[in-house]
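User: What would this chain look like folded?
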Amino acid sequence: MADLGSIALLLALAAALYGIVASAVGASRRNVPLVRSGRNASLVVTGLILVAAAVLVDAFVTRDFSVQYVAEHSSREMSLPLTIASFYSGQEGSLLYWATSLSVFVGIVVVQNRRRNLRLMPYVTAILLSIEAFFLLMLNFVSSPFTRLPFTAPNGLGLNPLLEDPGMLLHPPVLLAGYMSWSVPFAFAMSALITGQLGNEWIRTIRTYSLVAWAILGMGNLLGMWWAYHVLGWGGYWG
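Assistant: Here's the prediction, encoded as structure tokens.
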């Protein structure tokens, strides 16, 4: 299964790079089929990254301690919810979670705007896929969550005790998704600059996306305040 995750991430990187080129070149040459091809590539990226994320979750649930990341961040003694939360407890998993949440936002934006903002969307797609490609480069060549150990460990190391708390189930996923959600307004703003469409159209378009991003990130910060005060006290600052 770990090999399936690695293959999915590699294919996702290839699809993202193709989508960037197809979207940008298609927009500059007003080549509609090429633009559509870039849009379809972004959906392929979303699907492949979701497959990779599902593979990592499965590795944690089945306690596959032949995977280094699983062995380093979970153990047989942990509850199932905390075991699943271990997905984003380290660098490799956090990168994959960021890439996964961004891919979901990309899929939503591309589908919602397939018949709207036709001048902006190719550049929006290219910019979002460029951000995605950065994470995929990291996941494929720098910090892979699917690196295998030369042996299967009998048990894992488990979580840092400070992370063994209900806050681990809430704060990190909401906060990280909040970070990535701001990629959407950014992509529209940059696309407006690139195309010279600096009127109100792009502002109207990103209003809902910005409010949703603000709400997700705001909730993530609020949960972080509660968790920090609940676990660490922090001198009552968050209180």
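DSSP finds nine helices and no strands in the chain. If you want, I can go into more detail on any region.
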